[in-house]
């Protein structure tokens, strides 16, 4: 505990060290926004760069909590069936919980075809894994907090793309600032943040209402390019030196990925895997995209259901939004009891939810009980 507190309260990781890691990852085939997000959150928030691999934890002391990380497959999450959504990663295996299809964790990211290993690739380190597990920006709902008041027209696809662009640039600037101590450099980033904020919050509602759908699309695309242009112009205007070199490199790596909007790219070990249980959204693609599981639910209970975990009783205090048991089929439960109690005060209502979940063993169904 003392070591963790010391790291979080320490000076952190210098931007140059973070960018050195990024330079190496940018050479890899599946480099994506997740890498940039992972390295900046590691350096700026966690205050450390963790080069370990999760598979190295397979022989850890059994008295320590066993880590099971959860993610979503982005395409199946948006368009596919239940079985292709939930993804879990532990020191021993990684794969789709509902499908019960896994590979060794050290092989996650390697190339497979019809279940056969074609090309072994390096295992992702903890920096990249943190990027996968914390990239809530990858989902459309992340733009809700940055929708300007004047944009009261329906938020269509082109408006979403524009707001996505602004949101990720805003957050990347904030994270970059957290790795910098030089007052002059911080001032330049503050100026850039204000330029982007002013562009997005400039009221253009009258203009939008007068345009056709095609003209709206063209205008939003132009505005997106203007945001990118503002970042590029900021980099060019800096005085020569280490900070300019770092910012130029970061913008060179990040901006094309922002335009592509690519997150969590990983080789798909189920590519052309001939099994009727594998959804089309997984079977037909050479790569899939892993994103933060909290986009669906914050309580990662799906990984603890079924015979494999051999759990009789799960007590899950849960207070997040969303449908708590969305990923649970009725046959997975003996019963699900939710007890709600609320306590009112002058300025708020506190709702406490205690959920006791008793999982069925050996495949029993509600009808058979």
Work out the number of β strands: 11
What is the residue-averaged pLDDT?
80
Helical content stands at 25-40%
SSE arrangement, N to C: HHHEHEEEEEHHHHHHEHEEEE
Low-confidence stretches: 330-369
Rg from alpha-carbon coordinates = 23 Å
Largest sheet: 6 strands, antiparallel
Instruction: Find the structural class using helix and strand composition.
Output: alpha+beta
The tally of structural domains comes to 3
Q: Kindly report how far apart the N and C termini lie.
A: 46 Å
What coarse outline follows from CA principal-axis ratios?
Answer: globular
Strand portion: 15-25%
Number of helices: 11
The side-by-side strand order for the widest beta sheet comes to 4-3-2-1-8-7
Protein name: PLA2c domain-containing protein
GO molecular function: calcium ion binding; calcium-dependent phospholipase A2 activity; calcium-dependent phospholipid binding
GO biological process, one term: glycerophospholipid catabolic process
Organism: Crenichthys baileyi
Outline the structure in words.
It is a single chain. The chain has 11 helices and 11 strands. The chain has helices spanning 2-8, 15-25, 33-46, 74-79, 126-133, 157-177, 183-201, 205-209, 213-237, 242-260, 280-283; strands at 69-73, 86-89, 93-96, 101-104, 111-113, 116-119, 265-267, 287-292, 313-315, 333-344, 349-359. The chain has a 6-stranded antiparallel beta sheet. Strand 3 (93-96) and strand 4 (101-104) form a beta hairpin. Helix 2 (15-25) packs antiparallel against helix 3, helix 3 runs parallel beside helix 6 and helix 9 (213-237) runs antiparallel to helix 10 (242-260). It is globular, with a radius of gyration of 23 Å. The protein starts with a helix and ends in a 10-residue tail after the last strand. The model is unreliable at 330-369 (pLDDT under 50).
């Amino acid at each position: 505990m003392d070591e963790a507190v010391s790291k979080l309260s320490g000076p952190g990781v210098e931007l140059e060290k973070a960018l050195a890691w990024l330079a190496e990852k940018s050479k890899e085939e599946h480099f994506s926004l997740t890498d940039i997000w992972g390295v900046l959150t590691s350096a700026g928030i966690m205050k450390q760069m963790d080069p370990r691999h999760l598979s190295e934890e397979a022989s850890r002391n059994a008295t320590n909590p066993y880590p099971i990380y959860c993610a979503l497959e982005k395409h199946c999450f948006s368009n596919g069936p239940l079985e292709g959504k939930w993804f879990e990663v532990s020191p021993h295996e990684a794969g789709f919980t509902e499908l019960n299809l896994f590979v060794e964790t050290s092989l996650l990211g390697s190339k497979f075809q019809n279940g056969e290993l074609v090309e072994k690739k390096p295992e992702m380190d903890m920096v990249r894994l943190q990027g996968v597990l914390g990239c809530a920006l990858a989902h459309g709902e992340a733009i809700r907090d940055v929708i300007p008041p004047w944009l009261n027209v329906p938020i269509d696809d082109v408006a979403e793309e524009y707001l996505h662009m602004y949101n990720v640039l805003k957050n990347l600037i904030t994270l970059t600032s957290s790795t910098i101590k030089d007052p002059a450099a911080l001032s330049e980033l503050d100026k850039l943040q204000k330029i982007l904020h002013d562009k997005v919050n400039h009221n253009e509602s009258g203009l939008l209402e007068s345009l056709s759908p095609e003209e709206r699309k063209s205008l939003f695309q132009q505005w997106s390019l203007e945001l990118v242009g503002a970042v590029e112009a900021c980099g060019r205007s800096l005085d020569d030196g280490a900070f300019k070199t770092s910012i130029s490199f970061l913008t060179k790596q990040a901006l094309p990925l922002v335009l592509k909007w690519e997150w969590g790219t990983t080789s798909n070990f189920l590519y052309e895997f001939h099994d009727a249980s594998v959804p089309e959204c997984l079977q037909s693609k050479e790569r899939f995209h892993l994103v933060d599981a909290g986009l669906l639910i914050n309580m990662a209970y799906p990984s603890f259901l079924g015979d494999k975990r051999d759990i009789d009783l799960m007590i899950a205090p849960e207070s997040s939004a969303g449908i708590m048991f969305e990923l649970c089929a009725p046959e997975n439960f003996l019963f699900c009891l939710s007890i709600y109690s609320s306590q009112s005060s002058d300025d708020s209502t506190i709702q406490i939810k205690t959920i006791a979940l008793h999982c069925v063993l050996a495949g029993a169904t509600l009808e058979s009980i």
